[in-house]
Amino acid sequence: MKVITRKEVFEGNIKHRVLQFNAEEAIVINHPCNGSDQIREILNTTGQHNLSQPFVIEVENAKLVGTIAIGFDEAGNIIAETISGNPDCIKYIPAQTLLLEKLSNWAAPQIEAACSLTNWNSGYFHWLIDCLTRLEGIEYYQAQTGIKPTLIIHANPQEWQKESLRLLGYNPDDCIEWNDSGVKVKKLVVPSFRREHNIISPTACQWLRQRLLSNLSDNTSISLSPRIYISRPKSAGRNIINEADVMAILAPLGFVAYTMEELSFADEIRLFSQAEIVVAPHGAGLTNIIFALQKLIVIDLFGSFGTPCFFALAQALGFYYGCLGEGFDPKNKTGKYKGITVDIAKLQVLLQEMFTVRDSDRQVASVEDALFLTGDSAV
Fold first, then answer.
1. What is the CATH number of domain 227-369?
2. Residue 22: left (phi > 0), alpha (psi -120 to 50), or beta?
3. What is the pLDDT of residue 96?
4. Coiled-coil ranges per the record (predicted)?
5. Where along the chain do its domains lie?
């Protein structure tokens, strides 16, 4: 079984057409703000990370097979970029998919041109970061070739998934729901993933934010506070056990608690586009920081479970990031289903620290702007 990897794409070792766009990105991840807890996985992410130039592969006479629509070319090679942008993507391939692809009497419907936006994880973070950001590549391909691929999405999409596609200009007629079995595709369009492990392309996030905001009306029925606390009362885990104590210190500072499940996707964008600071338990709701239009303060509240993804994302977008974590253990996968108790004293210290850093940066920027306007280049 051969896998066509990203490395082979860049080395020119494949026969399929490859279109490259934009450029490589160098992202510097600094330490979180003082006052943050010293979480090893966070600290291990610091340093410079390089994201490769994004691309689109056009594969003729391809197949999409199995529950997550894995791509195979005419020779039976697996197209890794239909699964993940990481070298270890093969671990996500179900054995049943390999068996189904090998059936000699394999019969399936055929599509002229298509791109799969199915994913091994259909949650909110993965939909925005691993699916919607790839639409930039699809639209680049369409501009270069004049071909508009049909989008293949998971069956029974959530309302926020359908709403996000509408805001990006895609109607129901532009999509088909995946049958969990297989299709043949004359031209399979495969845009590269815009993240590598926990490092997400800020350029891709900015593209997605701009596209969504440009199609968003000003109509909303909710009150928008720039100081946001994300509450997770309906989640199976990572809800804040002492939330009343947390809000007792946040509410006097102007924070308002929001439950993401109670908002439309459009209102989530509106809310975060005007945000100044977000305090939240570690979870998918923090993906919405990509919609912020100003230099945001992000405070990530960990329990025993978490990843550095929002730390790296906040840093890549130029935001202020701080975190607190009690009993953090990355090997404890069941930790995602447990509640979180926040150390209130530590939270108060971290809030003060981050406001101080933000205000200091603003003062420096104001002085530099004033000097620039007066033509004084002494600083």
1. 3.40.50
2. left
3. 82
4. none
5. 3-199, 227-369
